[in-house]
Amino acid sequence: MRQELRKCWMEAAFYAVILLVCLAVLVSAMGLPGSLREPLGSAAVPKGVAVLIAAFCIMLLRRTLHDLRTCVQSGSDAANSAKTPSPASNAGGAVLKTCLIITVYAALLTWPIIPSAVTTPVFLFILIMALSSWTWKNFCWAIALSILFGEGLHYLFQNYLFVNLP
Known about the structure:
Elements lengths: L1 H28 L14 H31 L3 H6 L7 H20 L5 H16 L4 H24 L7
Helix pairs in contact: 1-2, 4-5, 5-6
């Protein structure tokens, strides 16, 4: 039980640090100068990414604090804690999968073997399926979300932010 609490606290601390980093990036991006070539300015991408990552960190931090509260409440009942799996029991495997998938994706973007319009939806699909259960419903949602979000992101960068992706 003590190990589960420690994992929950470590996750909460990690998300809090990432949230502070996003806040620092957002504040520093406020000072970037405007540009005539970019309609949204040069700070639009860093601000957007910082806000997006911060929003996800807030959601994950909220979930982790809920799991922590569940661990603490079930900690008084030893029999219950023996039957209930830890909310953070598979966190290490998910983090390892995510890091591996992101590393391969970053390598493919660095060495443009495959265009990003193809790489991004495939990356999103693999990431969604690696972190969720394998059901037909999740499979269909993963395909739809990865194509819509991946191609939408590519369209946004090409046509509104005027950033040529690899």
